[in-house]
Amino acid sequence: MFSFSTTLETLILKYSVLVDVPSPVCMKSLRTLHLDSVDFKDSKSIRNLISGCPNLEDLFIYQCYRKDVVLTFTIVAPFLKRLVITDYFVGSEKGGYVITALSLKYLTLKGVSHYGCCLIENAPMLVEAIIRKVSYIANENIEGSLTSVKRPLLDLSPLEFPTDSIFYQLVHLKMYTRKEEWWNLLTLMFNSSPKLQFLKLTDEKRKFRKHGLVGGKWNEPKNVPECLVSHLKMFVWTRYRWEREEEKEVATYILKNARQLKNASFSTRPID
User: Fold this and answer.
1) Which among 77, 45, 44 is positioned nearest to 60, based on CA atoms?
2) For 133-160, what is each residue's pLDDT tens digit?
């Protein structure tokens, strides 16, 4: 059982702390909450803790080990601006996250697996979203809530993000080029982002990989996407792999069809 102060502005709970909140708390002053590998008695304790922080602006959740209790994080926070979820929980039961945050501007999801779900019910003010290292998450629940995002960073394969949504506000896209068939996800994003102005492709691995990922070919768009015809102005590709045929095809296609392009930059490792 935990007793909380009503004057706290920042609360950090770490490691073997057991959080047992059988009834709603009242922490009106709390603005920042860190939950780092803590133990919750049940999902009700999570709900009571977060709902008792009506003015919460920054929430960081980190889960990294198997727990006996299946937890659903219900996050209802009307003034929440930043939400970071890093979840490497290993388990065979379903749990996950249900998020309602009307003021949310910055979202990071990392490591959330297919054993859980992530439902973002309403985030109309989302500006930046980082989606990395997820594994077959219920993406239809995520992509619908990202339609207002302006600057996403995606580290996914097309199988992990089979989007059919239209991102009308998206102007700045950063994608990692290390997942299988990432180039086909790029095609999906071209077709779904009519106002895209800035594109950055990168592979942040320190060691330069001589051989590319196996499997799949790039599916060139049947028609030139609107963003290439009318809006794309800057294209940056770092750690470009000149020996990978699909990457050469992607680069050639963009340079050929981006009619408003003003700046293009490629950087790679030297040839051995």
Assistant:
1) 77
2) 776 554 455 666 678 889 999 887 776 6
